[in-house]
2-polyprenyl-6-methoxyphenol hydroxylase-like FAD-dependent oxidoreductase (Saccharothrix variisporea), 470 residues
Amino acid sequence: MPDTDVLVVGAGPTGLLLANELALAGVDVVVAEQRPERSGQSRALSLQPRSAEILDLRGWLDPIAEQSLARLPAGHFAGMPVHYGDLDTRFPYQLGVEQSVVEAHLEGLLGAVARGHVLVGLEQDEEAVTAAFDVGGTRKVLTARYLVGADGGHSTVRKLVGAEFPGRAGRVRMAVADITLASADDQGWRLPSFGDTTAGFRHLIPLREGRSRLLFAGPEQQELARDAPVTAAEVQRALGDTARVEEVWWASRFTDASRQAARYRHGRVLLAGDAAHIHLPIGGQGLNLGLGDAFNLGWKLAAHVTGRAPAGLLDTYHAERHPVAAAALASARAQGVLTIPDEDVAALRGFVADLISDPATNRRLAEQQAGLDVRYAVPGAAHPLLGLRMPDVDLPDGTRLNTRFREGRSVLLDTSGRFDHVVSHVDGPDPSRYGVAGDQAVLIRPDGHVCWIGDDEDSLRAALAGVVTG
C-alpha cells in the first residue's frame, strides 16, 4: 500500500492550499518541502480579489486579511492603475499581504509539513508514484497514489517527469530586495508607478517591522549575470540619494522569462503553480495564478482519489487551467514590454495609458488582473453566468452564499426546493439578482464556478454526475 494518497512536493501557497483542500475532503496527504524551515521572506505581496474569494469560500481568509498591510482599491497594468471599485465582488480591492503570511496560516491549518526533504528521484507505474528524497544525507522513499509538483519555477518534479516547458528565455533583468532603511518610509502602501522608464525604474514599498521592498531595474542589472549576488552597494545605487540602506535581508534577481508546461498531467504526476508556468512577476499574478490552480485541482483530485469522480474529471484540470495561465503569461509579456527602458517604449506607454483611461477598457483589464474574468468551458445551454465564478450574494436567512462552501462541496442555489429529493439546496435571493430566470436553479461547483442553470430534473442529475458520482 502507498504511504499516502497524495504527495505534494512544495510548501508554498500553491502546495499548501492544495493540501488543505485534499485534507478537507478526507484525503490522506503529505507535503514535502526542501527548505528546513519557512524563510520568512516576504516574496509575493498581494492577494487579488479572486484569491480573496477563494480563501473566503473555505473560511480561511479572515486571519490573513487581519495581517494585511493595506487594501488597495486598484491593481495595475505595467504600473498603470486599473480600478476594482465597480467589480461585482465582496472584495473590490487588492490585499497587501506578504506571501509569508499566507504560507504561515495555510501551514498552520494543515498541521505538519515534512521539511528538509530534497527530491532526488521519481518513478511511477499504474498503481503509484515513488519519490526518493535526500533528508540530511539520508535517502528516504515515499510512495503515493498521486504526486503534485508545486515546487516552483525551477521544479525538480517537472524535470524528473521530462515535462516539456516551451517558451522563451528572459530578455530583461530585474532585481528585488527586502531592506531596512536608515530612516523609515512613512508614506504607506501605494501602487507602483514606473514613470519614465528610459533609464529603468525603481519602486519602494514599506513592509512591517521597519522593512521595505525595493523593486528595481536599470542598465546595471542588464549587465550582471542572472546568478550574481545582489549586493548592498547595488541596492544603494538603485535607491539613489533618497535614503540610506542599513541592511539587506533578502535579495534576488529575476527576468521576464515566459514558459508554460505543455501538459499539466503526466500519468499520476500533476504540475501546479510556478512548476507549471513562469512569467514576469508583475501585478502579483504568480501567487494568485497558483492559488487558482490549487483550487481547481483540489476538489477534482480528491473526488478521483476517493472514487467519486466521473470519468475524465481529473483531466479537466489541464483543460481548464492551461488556457487561464496562457492568458496570464500573455498579459505579463505585454506588461514586460511596457517596462523596457527605451524611448519608443515610453511613447507606447503613453499611448496605452490613454487607452486604459477609458472606463470600459479599465474595467476589462481590472477583471483580468483581479482574476474575475475566468470562464471554464462547461456543458449546457449558453448563459452569461455559466462557467464563471458565482458572485457572493446575501441569502434570505441573513448568511452569505460563500459560507456554504466551507466543506468543499457543490451547492444548489434554488428558491423553490423542488429538487430537494435530488440534492439539498440553499434558498437563494431573487434569481434575477444574478441574471437567472425566476424558475431556474443554479448548481455551483466546489470551486465556486457555475456548472448548471436550469429547471428540469434530468439535466440537473446529469450535471451532478459530471461533478461527482454518488
User: Anything to note?
Assistant: The chain has three domains: 4-45+98-167+259-337, 173-255, 401-467. The radius of gyration is 23 Å.
